[in-house]
Design goal:
about 375 residues, 11 helices, alpha+beta, Aminopeptidase, eight-stranded mixed sheet, about 35% strand
Length: about 375
C-alpha cells in the first residue's frame, strides 16, 4: 500500500523574531526580479534569461500560489526588517520525502537571513507537515549552496553524474539528505584558508584569477619532473579541476590549501597544502612558480603553515616528504627544523619513473622549543 503524501497545509507565517517566512506578495516582485537577474542566480539556477518584471510578478502572484494549491511545492518568501531576502521551496516528492531549494537576494547573501529561514522551513516541514526525509541537490561547483546545506546538517551523499540540467546541458550534481530527528548542525569539519602573514609573503585563498599562474607553474619542466603524476601538458581545465579538488578537500575536513602571494601585489608565487589531516597529524606539500624560486618564499610559507597547524588545529606532529634527489624541497624542510625520519624506497613518481623519498617530521614540542 502506498504511503500517503503529506497534507496540503495553508500558507503559514513562520518567524524566529528576526526573520519571517510568508506567502509571496506584490511587494516582493521587485526583489524577486533583482535576485533573478543577478549573475550568480543565473549561473546556478534555471531562471529564464532574460528575466523580466512580468516573469517575477507571474512567479510571485501566480506560480507560487498555484503550487501551494496543488501541493506540489511550498514556496515562501524570506523577509528581514521588512525587506525581501529571497525565497525557499519545499517540493513534495511523495512517500514522506521533499526536496529543498533556495535562492538569496544579492543583498542578503552572507547576512545569515537564508540560514535562519531554512531552519524555520526545516522545523515546519519535519514537524507540521510530517516529512521524514529532505533532499538537497546542487550543481557541482555551487559551493555557497553546499556550505549552507552543511551548516544545516545535510550530509553530502554523493555525486549524481550528468543528472542535473543546466542551461540545456547535463552536468554533475551533489545530492545530500537530512532526516527527521537528525541534528541540524554540521557533522564534520569544513576548513577555510584563513589569510596568514609571514616575512615577505601573504598566504591567502586560491582564486580563479590564479589559474594562469597555476598553469605556468605546473606546466614547468622542473615542477613536472618532481611531481610526475601531474598532467602534461597542463591546461586551464587541469587547473580548474585542481581548484575544485582543493575545495572538496576543505569541505570534507581533509586538508586546506593556500596561495603563497606577494604581500604588495597579491600575485601568486607558490602553493602550499596541508593534507592527510586528522586530529593528530597532517602532511605539508608545496610547489613554487619558476620566477619565485630561490627567494625564500616557500621556506617562510612552511614556517607560517606549521605554526598555524600546531596553534589552531592542535596537531601533535606535521610531516613532509620529497624525492631524495630534490635538494631544494628538502632544504625547505631542513631550514624549518624538520627532522629526517628515514627513506622509503620507490615511494614517489617522477617524470622519469619511480624514485625513493626522504620523509621528515616535527612534533609540537620540538616546534615550540625550536621557535
Amino acid at each position: 500500500m502506498r504511503p500517503p503524501s503529506p497534507p496540503r497545509p495553508d500558507v503559514p507565517t513562520l518567524t524566529d523574531g528576526s526573520v519571517t517566512l510568508r506567502a509571496l506578495a506584490e511587494r516582493d516582485v521587485q526583489g524577486c526580479w533583482e535576485q533573478c537577474v543577478d549573475p550568480l542566480s543565473i549561473r546556478w539556477t534555471q531562471v529564464p534569461v532574460p528575466y523580466s518584471h512580468h516573469d517575477a510578478r507571474e512567479f510571485c502572484l501566480d506560480y507560487a500560489p498555484a503550487a501551494w494549491a496543488d501541493g506540489s511545492q511550498w514556496i515562501l518568501a524570506v523577509e528581514r526588517d521588512g525587506r525581501y531576502c529571497g525565497n525557499i521551496a519545499l517540493r513534495d516528492e511523495g512517500h514522506g520525502r521533499a526536496e529543498i531549494a533556495y535562492g538569496a537576494h544579492p543583498d542578503a547573501r552572507g547576512t545569515g537571513a537564508m540560514e535562519a529561514g531554512l531552519r524555520l522551513v526545516l522545523e515546519w516541514g519535519f514537524g507540521t507537515v510530517g516529512v521524514q526525509t529532505i533532499v538537497w541537490r546542487a550543481e557541482v561547483g555551487n559551493w555557497a549552496s553546499r556550505h549552507l546545506a552543511w551548516r544545516l546538517g545535510f550530509t553530502v551523499d554523493g555525486v549524481l553524474r550528468r543528472s542535473h540540467v543546466s542551461r540545456g546541458e547535463l552536468v554533475d550534481a551533489w545530492v545530500g539528505t537530512l532526516l527527521a530527528g537528525e541534528p541540524r548542525e554540521p557533522s564534520g569539519r569544513w576548513l577555510k584558508p584563513v589569510p596568514l602573514e609571514g616575512d615577505g609573503v601573504l598566504l591567502r585563498p586560491l582564486d580563479v584569477d590564479d589559474v594562469p599562474r597555476i598553469v605556468e607553474a605546473c606546466g614547468d619542466g622542473r615542477t613536472h619532473h618532481w611531481l610526475g603524476r601531474m598532467p602534461s601538458p597542463y591546461t586551464e581545465d587541469d587547473a580548474l579541476r585542481w581548484l575544485g579538488a582543493n575545495q572538496e578537500q576543505m569541505a570534507t575536513g581533509g586538508g586546506v590549501t593556500w596561495a603563497v602571494a606577494d604581500p604588495s601585489s597579491g600575485r601568486m608565487l607558490a602553493s602550499i597544502n596541508l593534507f592527510h589531516l586528522d586530529e593528530v597529524e597532517a602532511e605539508i606539500g608545496y610547489w613554487t612558480h619558476p620566477d619565485a624560486r630561490g627567494r625564500g618564499a616557500m621556506t617562510e610559507a612552511v614556517r607560517v603553515v606549521t605554526d598555524w597547524a600546531f596553534a589552531e588545529l592542535g596537531l601533535r606532529i606535521v610531516r613532509c616528504a620529497a624525492a631524495v634527489e630534490n635538494k631544494a624541497s628538502r632544504h625547505v624542510m631542513e631550514a624549518n627544523g624538520f627532522r629526517l625520519g628515514g627513506h622509503d624506497r620507490l615511494a614517489t613518481t617522477l617524470d622519469t619513473g619511480r624514485a625513493d623519498i626522504a620523509f621528515y617530521d616535527v612534533t609540537a614540542e620540538e616546534w615550540a622549543a625550536g621557535r
